[in-house]
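Design a sequence for this backbone.
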């Protein structure tokens, strides 16, 4: 792969070509003020990073710009003219489009139909299948997705679905493209970065990227605009971008060492997996985890990390092999049996697999205790929910707040709190900090560390190599479902994990 181009301040677009102006935008949700007098400009051909912790107002600002929600006050100008969008469809006609954290694609429609959905929504539109395929292939090729355009979207893996979302946005030929955490499910976002750079350089498109990955901010943006608690706290030019400066401005403190791992004495083996074959691959996987230990699972998207954890947790049927907890083998391979044995899983997709988005915090925390035909003690549920909110630092107005109104980090803490309510012996964490800012990451790492002191063994699957290197005592690497390596903490490096994850071998 060719080295990434180096962007400097001299490459920044001219301020004379301002395409988007945000003037004193504020937005309140009841008593909560999500944005407070935010102003920014975006020039033609520029890539602006919108940085900040979860709950800082980044996604709210993006949704206001794209007409998803209206501002409480303030003004948006496009090409110097004030605009007020009645909805995303109207913003799209003006050339403003958003690739959001929440998928907007239609899984039962074909890939081509999803890519060109903006055309199909027009009344009295004649659709010719051959033209639909031909035009969709242009944008699929642009994002590097080689698939049959007539496949149903639901047949794709999550990373490929994310690329379809990007292709759909590009098919509208946007003047302003906003990518809100669009890279979290991509195994290699570099191709997407080059697409954005080419569009900006050749077509004058302007882009706003929202990401928690500081290296992506440094890699792609001309400027970083930083929000904290709904207010603009400053911006950094390209030549000033560094992890330390960005994080200090975001959280009001220095980056420090978020990945420092405290030493915990290892005890007996709490989890033993012997020759486990998942429905993802015919290759058997074997591993052991001791109490007080974190075992990392590395591998590219599609390598079988999630399938391995889900099979251990009984959510998937093992084709062969055994799972043993504290010396007792599990036979039924069901979530209920695994939970009773002391296994608790924090799934990869918190919204689709873990939380009921429109239910309240108290309801989500009590889910694991409720049983059919059993009376619910609501007073006890509220007391325990309030205790969990305090213990895990969940920031919310009350336990009656819907989890859909929480930031990603706080929603993840709700899920962690519910999993810990089982008092687990084995904790399976699948991408526990995906879409979570650096401040919330540090808090989640602290929560995990406290679990280790309670004689818990942890299996941590993550695509964040720094997270694996910083937290794990050992790391196993999967390639297309096969266990291709096991690395001790002292020998593991980013380069070696990347090599094994791509199917390479150690010299």
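Sequence:
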């Amino acid at each position: 792969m060719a080295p990434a181009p180096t962007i400097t301040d001299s490459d920044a677009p001219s301020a004379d070509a301002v395409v988007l102006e945000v003037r004193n935008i504020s937005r309140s949700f009841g008593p909560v003020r999500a944005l407070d007098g935010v102003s920014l400009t975006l020039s033609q051909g520029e890539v602006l990073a919108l940085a900040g912790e979860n709950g800082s107002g980044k996604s709210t600002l993006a949704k206001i710009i794209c007409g998803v929600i209206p501002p409480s006050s303030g003004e948006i100008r496009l090409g110097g003219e004030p605009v007020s969008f009645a909805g995303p469809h109207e913003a799209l006609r003006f050339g403003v489009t958003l690739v959001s954290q929440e998928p907007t694609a239609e899984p039962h429609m074909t890939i081509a139909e999803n890519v060109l959905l903006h055309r199909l929504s027009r009344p009295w539109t004649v659709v010719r299948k051959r033209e639909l395929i031909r035009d969709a292939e242009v944008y699929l090729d642009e994002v590097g997705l080689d698939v049959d355009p007539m496949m149903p979207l639901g047949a794709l893996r999550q990373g490929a679905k994310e690329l379809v979302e990007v292709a759909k946005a590009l098919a509208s030929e946007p003047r302003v493209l906003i990518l809100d955490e669009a890279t979290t499910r991509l195994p290699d976002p570099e191709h997407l970065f080059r697409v954005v750079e080419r569009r900006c350089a050749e077509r004058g498109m302007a882009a706003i990227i929202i990401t928690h990955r500081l290296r992506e901010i440094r890699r792609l943006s001309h400027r970083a605009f930083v929000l904290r608690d709904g207010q603009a706290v400053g911006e950094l030019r390209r030549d000033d971008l560094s992890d330390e400066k960005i994080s200090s401005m975001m959280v009001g403190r220095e980056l420090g060492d978020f990945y420092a791992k405290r030493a915990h004495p290892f005890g007996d083996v709490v989890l033993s997996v012997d020759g486990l074959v998942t429905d993802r691959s015919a290759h058997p996987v074997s591993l052991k985890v001791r109490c007080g230990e974190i075992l990392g699972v590395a591998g590219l998207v599609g390598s079988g990390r999630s399938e391995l954890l889900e099979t251990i947790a009984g959510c998937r049927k093992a084709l062969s092999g055994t799972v043993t907890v504290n010396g007792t083998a599990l036979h039924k391979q069901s979530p209920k049996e695994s939970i009773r044995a002391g296994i608790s899983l924090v799934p990869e997709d918190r919204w689709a697999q873990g939380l009921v988005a429109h239910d309240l915090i108290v309801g989500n925390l009590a889910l694991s205790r409720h049983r059919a035909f059993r009376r619910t003690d609501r007073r006890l549920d509220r007391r325990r929910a309030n205790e969990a909110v305090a213990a895990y630092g969940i920031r919310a107005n009350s336990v009656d707040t819907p989890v859909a109104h929480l930031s990603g980090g706080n929603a993840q803490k709700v899920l962690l709190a519910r999993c810990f309510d089982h008092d687990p012996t084995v904790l399976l964490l699948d991408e526990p900090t995906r879409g979570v800012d650096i401040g919330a990451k540090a808090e989640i790492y602290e929560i995990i560390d406290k679990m280790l002191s309670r004689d818990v063994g942890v299996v941590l699957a993550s695509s964040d190599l720094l997270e694996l290197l910083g937290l794990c005592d050992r790391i196993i690497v999967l390639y297309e479902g096969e266990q291709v390596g096991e690395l001790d903490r002292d020998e593991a490096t980013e380069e070696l994990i990347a090599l094994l994850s791509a199917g390479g071998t150690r010299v």
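The first helix runs from residue 58 to 65.
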